[in-house]
C-alpha cells in the first residue's frame, strides 16, 4: 500500500490546524502526503477579520503564508478554489486561476485523494434579502475585509475634507457585528493622532440592526446586557427587533418602512455553508448549504470524505448542531487528527464530543465580556474586563499553538507584538 494522500480543502480555523498537526506527525516523516488547498495564499484567523477591516491589524504582519508554513510543518500547499467533487473517482476539481487583470494563470486542475477533508468554513446568510448581495459587504474573507477597509479610508478622507457625516450600517448584532461596531468607534476616536485633524467621533454614525430583541442573541442575557450598556455608552445606534426588508445604495429599508441611511453597509447576520456546496450533488447537503456528517465527522454515505467546522452539520447526542464557532472548528480538527491517525493504524475512530467553553466578545479597548463554562464551576459564569480580554486572547493563542506548537506560538506572538510596537497602531493606507 503506497503513501496515503490526505487532501484538506480550506485552511481556516479548523483546516489549517489539522494540516499542521498531520503534517508534523506524518508529512515531515513522509508517512503520508498532506496537501492543503485554499483559495487564498494567506491565512488570517477569521475572528480577526473585523480588525483587518478597520485597520487595527495589518494582514502583512499577522497573516501567515501557507506555502512557507507548510514547508516547515510537513504539508504541501496549493492555491485553488474547489468547484467540483467526484466521490466515485476520488477526485476534486479546482477552478481556473486568474490574475487581477482577469488573465488566465492556470486552467482547472484535478486532484486525487485517498482521504478528503472539507473545511471550507461558512459565509454570511443574506436570507435572499433584496439588494443585500449587491449593496453590502459580507465579512467572510480577507478580500471582503480589505474592501471594507478601502471604503472606510475613502469615508475618513471625505470626512476630514468636508466635515460632513459618515454613516455605517451593520446588519446582525452577533459577535461579528458587535465587535466591528466597537472597533470602528475606537478607530474613529483615534484617527486624529494620525493626521485626520478634522474628524471627531461626533462625525460618525454607526447603526447596528438586529432582528432579535437583544444584541448577541445566542448569549446569556447578562453578557448581552453588559455589551449593550457599553455600546450605548459609546453612542452606537442600536435598532433591535428590526428586520431589514431591502438594501439599496441609500441604506436599509426596514419591515415597517423606515430607511436607515448608511454610506457603508455591512451584512454580518446568519451563517450558511459555502455556495459551492450547492453544486456538489453527490453529497448530502442541507438547505443551509452545510454537508451532513456523522458523529466521527465522516460525510454521510462517504467513508473517505470528512468535513469539519462551519461547513459541516454535525448533530450532537442532545439533538443540537455543533455551533459555527472557532472553538468548535478547532476541537473538531483535534478529534479528526486522532481519528485519521487511528484509521491509518487500522483502529476505530472516536465520535466528536463538543465542549462549550463559553463565549467571549471583544469590545475593542472599551471592554470584553463573556461567559465561561466548564469544570471551574457548575454552569456558566460571567466575566468582564481584563479577565475576559485575557481569555479572548488565549483563544487566539490556542489557535497559534495548533499551528506552530506551544513554544513557537509564544515566540511568534512576541515577534508580532514587537513589529506592531514599531509600526503605527492603525493601518491607514
Ligand atoms: C468577524 C468574525 C468574528 C468572529 N469571532 C468569533 C469569535 O470571537 N469566537 C468564535 O468562536 N468564532 C468567531 N467567529 C466564527 C469563526 O471565525 C468561525 O466559526 C471559524 O473560523 C470556522 O472555522 P472553519 O475552519 O470552519 O472555517 P474558516 O476559518 O472560515 O476557514 C475556511 C477556509 O476555507 C477557505 N475556502 C473557502 N471556500 C473555499 C473554496 N471553494 N476553495 C478553497 N478554499 C476555500 C477560506 O479561504 C478559508 O481559509 C467569527 C467570525 C467572523 C467572520
From TrEMBL:
What protein is this chain from?
NADH dehydrogenase
Q: Where is the signal peptide?
A: none
**Family annotation (InterPro entries):** FAD/NAD-bd_sf, FAD/NAD-binding_dom, NDH-2
This protein's species is Shewanella amazonensis (strain ATCC BAA-1098 / SB2B)
Which protein family is named in the record?
Belongs to the NADH dehydrogenase family.
Its EC top class is oxidoreductase
Molecular function (GO) terms for this protein are: NADH dehydrogenase (ubiquinone) activity; NADH dehydrogenase activity
Record flagged with keyword NAD = yes
| EC nos | 1.6.99.3
